[in-house]
């Protein structure tokens, strides 16, 4: 039973906007917070009690001065909760285009598809945006030649859904990187659970780790601000004719991201959208 105690930090943002909240999220993500939710006018952030450092948070928020908004925060201890039970009640199986099923070990009696992925994350607050996971999986399924026998990187791998699917689609080698140590461990365990542990290597860190190698395909389901920051690094580490698939942002963010990618030499090749969430595909020519 996982009844870990958590601190809920409420960061009040004035003026509040999704863009301002994303900026705050990107900065606070450098600390060991596990989940964020936007509830105008606050951004709620969750962290294990023993990992909470109010002074470190104050320093991070202080670094945002001059960006056109102000922040203040309060912190409260949440009652002990069995987060595994909460997660089980919230997570429903995902079936992507009838070809890939993403489920938990407690889901039984499901019809098998071509690719079946079981995940049991150690992270307390769910599995992320299903729309973005769905679109990234669909991008892989629709572009099998970009995966088979290729070296694939899952950046911000989380529970390693995308890394596992790439491995099952016969990628030659798959790497998973996440800035959260809990996520990196969870990704490693899930790879073993799906019998692709020998093909997937997971690491804890940021985009600086990419420079250890080059890749045929990079998958990055993160958020707009991190993508804008790291696309130049992705491009540098892509092999000739390599591809980049990104998600974790809204349709209205497309021009900004396509512009950044173009400035680094990437060619836009297509996109997908569900409920205003977006996934874009790029190729590196030459």
Number of helices, where a helix is a run of at least 4 consecutive DSSP H or I residues: 8
Order of SSEs, N→C? EHEEHEHEEEHEHEHEEHEHEE
Full CATH superfamily name of the largest domain = Vaccinia Virus protein VP39
> How many discrete structural domains?
2
Fold blueprint:
Elements: E1 6-14, H1 18-28, E2 35-39, E3 42-48, H2 54-62, E4 70-77, H3 83-90, E5 94-96, E6 100-103, E7 115-118, H4 130-141, E8 151-155, H5 161-168, E9 173-178, H6 181-193, E10 200-204, E11 215-221, H7 224-237, E12 238-250, H8 254-263, E13 266-274, E14 277-284
Parallel strand pairs: 6-7, 8-9, 8-11, 9-10, 11-12
Antiparallel strand pairs: 1-3, 1-4, 2-3, 5-6, 12-14, 13-14
Helix pairs in contact: 4-5, 7-8
Please sum up the structure shown:
This protein is of the alpha/beta class and 286 residues long. It is built from 8 helices and 14 strands.
